[in-house]
Amino acid sequence: MQAASALARLAAEIVRCRRCPRLVAHREASGANPPRRYRDETYWARPLPGFGDPRARLLLVGLAPAAHGGNRTGRMFTGDQSGAWLFAALHAAGFANQPTSMHRADGLTLKDAWVTAALRCAPPANKPAPDELARCQPFLLTELRAHRRVRVVVALGRIGWDHYLRARRALNWPPPIERPRFGHGAITRFADGTTLIASYHPSQQNTFTGKLTRPMLNAIFATARDVLKSPPRTTGFPPHGTG
Known about the structure:
The chain is 38% helix and 10% strand. It has a single domain, classed as 3-Layer(aba) Sandwich (Uracil-DNA Glycosylase, subunit E). It is globular. It is built from 8 helices and 6 strands, in the order ααββααβαβαββαα. β5 and β6 form a beta hairpin.
């Protein structure tokens, strides 16, 4: 209940955010001038909080909402092809009750998983500026503090991977046991027992070119499930440190 309350307060704060003028202008312009196929829809056009199971042991960290995906539907990875790949893989591994994510009222629920991102607004050309990512970081820090049960983190893309590592350093959480190196399927373990798994982002740039295939993405969440089934590793550090 404590985690759920903290996450609900955070969600309300995120939705009100207008810290980045460029992002505010882009998210609102995308909703005001949508592609023809979405012209009968009212866009969310606000920042997106994370969503899922407040008691999750699996955390997913992506890049940002898509202008005509999450920025339209009001939920992370919902209403676009990246989400179609992601939730099919989560469903196959038992973390979602259905393989699709079309809109906020479609009945999707996550089991033992929470989805978030480094940036909460859709950036132009999917390229956030460093100062925008820095302004968004406090949201991720608060989210990580609330999720005290997380044992496995899946970073969807290099930016999600980088920003999870930066968040850990900002929170003064225990360090990695080995030097982190990004690559699809690469695993980094931390001294507090957390496991970080790197994945290519399920963007069309990767899925259309074959850089990321469905079996590759399914394997990421099968690995996450296997780690969660194993007994927690004992270390000399408390879970997630004291940040």
